[in-house]
């Protein structure tokens, strides 16, 4: 089955100009329902002559864009190329096109969908995920607070440099206070978000929830992870966790009216950042009473390696670090929000972690979403995390 507008283009009923106008009006990809829970999704590119195009999506075994492996098909007599795929109808996912010139496949040029520009907040600290288009299929769980954040004004942020004696380095820290006037005796709850960037979605999502009266006014702190150090700092690194507790928290409280109660403090992150948030809060519940783990890399262990050949016959697979540490100790007084994509390779470890946390009696909320290891979901589900951590006194966030 082909999308009706593509059929009209291919038969000449529509000119390329009319088809292009249709795409600009409706947006892409084009979606046709074919059953109660499946759709046909048509991607369209206009790449120029002698160019082949492939699609990659953030669903699959790689923690990156996974190539679909099928070339787009030219629509004869037009500059357009199309690819139609059958999909479950509840997906939300980031995607890019890769254009290959006439000289051969090579690395190609990775670009967003020209008829579906990347949304606001699409730039992130991990460059390979930045600048992607997002497809939202008709039965995808809505993310209304992200929609409001994307439509609203950019929240004000302070920016300063934290010099760490413990780590011997410096990093940028951005602080966004909640909307509205603060009382003189305010002691705000706050969330520290790892992998912070100037255009992060968290302050905007927070503003939407505060203005709706659904969460307590809270500050958002965005901590920069310099690229060359990120993969060390976020992998259960005691020195980095000490910096957060012994340097960052006092530094923040000297400058802003922030609560000193651990129950009012959350540490948040995605992927490696989610691993760090969970591991740090587990070991320092006196500092962080809440942890927000979004697709955490909880399969990590420093001694875990994979290879091929006879060496594999001697390999021993350790219990991942975060899971092992939860098993080894009595439950810490930490509330944990944990989400993961149903279609990402790390969900097996997330399910294991949730089983262990639940068995230990942790106060935890676990969610699986219809997608992969993807900012397209994390940005919006962060609202559910704030509703879990800092609901208004009259509510408990159960409507999230």
TrEMBL record:
It comes from the Bacteria. One of its GO terms (biological process) is carbohydrate metabolic process. PANTHER family: ENTEROCHELIN ESTERASE-RELATED, IRON(III) ENTEROBACTIN ESTERASE. This is Enterochelin esterase. It comes from Streptomyces parvus. The lineage of its organism: Bacteria, Bacillati, Actinomycetota, Actinomycetes, Kitasatosporales.
């Amino acid at each position: 089955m082909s999308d009706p507008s593509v059929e009209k283009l291919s038969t000449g009923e529509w000119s390329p100009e009319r088809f292009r106008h249709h795409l600009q009006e409706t947006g892409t990809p084009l979606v046709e329902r074919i059953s109660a829970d499946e759709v046909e999704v048509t991607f369209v590119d206009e790449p120029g002559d002698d160019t082949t195009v492939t699609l990659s999506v953030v669903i699959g075994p790689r923690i990156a864009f996974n190539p679909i492996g099928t070339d787009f098909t030219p629509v004869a007599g037009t500059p357009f190329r199309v690819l139609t795929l059958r999909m479950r109808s509840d997906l939300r996912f980031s995607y890019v096109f890769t254009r290959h010139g006439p000289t051969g496949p090579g690395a190609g040029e990775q670009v967003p969908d020209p008829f579906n520009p990347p949304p606001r907040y699409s730039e992130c600290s991990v460059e390979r995920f930045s600048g992607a288009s997002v497809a939202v299929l008709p039965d995808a769980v809505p993310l209304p607070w992200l929609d409001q954040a994307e439509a609203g004004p950019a929240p004000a942020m302070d920016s300063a440099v934290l010099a760490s004696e413990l780590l011997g380095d410096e990093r940028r820290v951005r602080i966004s206070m909640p909307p509205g006037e603060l009382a003189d005796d305010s002691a705000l709850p706050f969330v520290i978000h790892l992998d912070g960037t100037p255009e992060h979605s968290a302050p905007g999502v927070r503003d939407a929830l505060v203005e709706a009266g659904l969460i307590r006014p809270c500050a958002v702190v965005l901590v920069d992870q310099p690229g060359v150090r990120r993969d060390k700092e976020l992998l259960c690194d005691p020195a980095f966790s000490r910096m957060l507790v012994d340097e960052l928290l006092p530094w923040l409280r000297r400058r802003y009216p922030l609560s000193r109660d651990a129950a009012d403090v959350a540490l948040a992150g995605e992927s490696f950042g989610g691993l760090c948030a969970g591991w740090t809060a587990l070991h320092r519940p006196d500092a962080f009473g809440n942890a927000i783990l979004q697709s955490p890399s909880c399969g990590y262990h420093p001694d875990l390696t994979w290879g091929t050949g006879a060496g594999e016959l001697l390999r021993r697979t350790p219990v991942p670090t975060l899971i092992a540490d939860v098993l080894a100790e009595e439950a810490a007084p930490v509330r944990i929000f944990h989400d993961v994509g149903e279609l990402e390779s790390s969900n097996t470890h997330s399910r294991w972690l949730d089983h262990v946390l639940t068995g230990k009696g942790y106060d935890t909320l676990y969610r699986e979403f219809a997608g992969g290891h993807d900012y397209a979901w994390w940005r919006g589900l962060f609202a559910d995390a704030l509703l879990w951590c800092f609901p208004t006194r009259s509510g408990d966030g159960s409507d999230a």
